[in-house]
Fold this sequence. Notes:
Structural class: mainly alpha
Number of strands: 0
Radius of gyration: 37 Å
Order of helices and strands: H
Helix content: over 70%
Shape: rod-shaped
Distance between the termini: 115 Å
Oligomer: single chain
Amino acid sequence: MQIDNRISRGNIFVLGSMVVGGAAAWGTWTTTTSLLAAKLADQAASLSAHEARIRAMETTARQDERPILILDGLRMIDARLDTGPHP
C-alpha cells in the first residue's frame, strides 16, 4: 500500500471548511455559554429575592400569630374563671 503525499485543491478546501466550521462552532458555543451564564445569574438573583420575601412573610405571620395565641390563652383563663372554683 502506497500513500500519495501530494496536497490537492480538494484537500485544501476540506481543511479550510473544517477550520471555518470549527471556528463557527466555537463562536456559537461561547455565545451560548455566555447567555446561559447570564440567565443563571439572573435566576440566582431572583431566587435570593424570593427567599427574602418568603422570610419576611414568615416573620410577619409569626408576629401576627402571637396576639392570637395570647387572646386564646386569655379566653381559656376567662372561661375557667366564669365556671367558678374547681373542686
